């Protein structure tokens, strides 16, 4: 492998840097986009329990906000639970947009790497062809060892550019789809908590009305 990279000469260097950055992004997103980190199981049920027990206070909301992305959007529901439904929805959607941006962190960079890696490989290919034709102009076609260097540069850079671009593109599309799924689940659980708060509020109002009667 190392011998192949050496054959690609200096145009391989930017492709090596691209591959390192792409690998770092893939590993970081694999860690950050784990479902249990974004949507901790049982958190919605726990928050519902707070609401039913009347244990929601500023301290719990702050701890919930720092807990996870799901905690942040559930905290937004609790903070604006007393407002009208339209205003509450707008505030929760605003929190959701910020969370989406966080979940999509570095994905644009990964998509950019998937796009530019073949172009960098093409640049290396052009450099290799220039060296090949330069060798032909100086020594003719009777010196194959001099032609081999330029051809190797062209082929290695083309192959390595595709080697970086294809996995980068696959992971970029995969993580985009994963973010969409996670955001949909975040919105669903936020809507469920909002409905629970609305039903709880209606029940409390009926109980007050009965006591007054």
Task: Tell me what you see in this structure.
There is one protein chain. The protein is mostly helical and 213 residues long. It has one domain. The protein has 9 helices and no strands. It has helices at residues 2-7, 12-32, 35-38, 43-53, 58-65, 69-79, 85-103, 107-139, 144-212. The protein is rod-shaped, with a radius of gyration of 28 Å. The termini are far apart. The mean pLDDT is 84.
Order of helices and strands: HHHHHHHHH
Percent of residues in beta strands? under 5%
- How many runs of DSSP E, i.e. beta strands? 0
What is the count of helical runs? 9
**Category by helix and strand content:** mainly alpha
Number of domains: 1
* Average predicted local confidence, pLDDT: 84
List low-pLDDT spans.
none
Q: Please bin the fraction of helical residues.
A: over 70%
What gross morphology would you assign? Answer: rod-shaped
- Describe the biggest sheet? none
- Rounded to an integer in angstroms, the radius of gyration calculated over CA atoms is 28 Å
Distance between the termini: 85 Å
Structure in a nutshell:
This protein is mainly alpha-helical. Helices cover 85% and strands 0% of the residues. The chain has one domain.
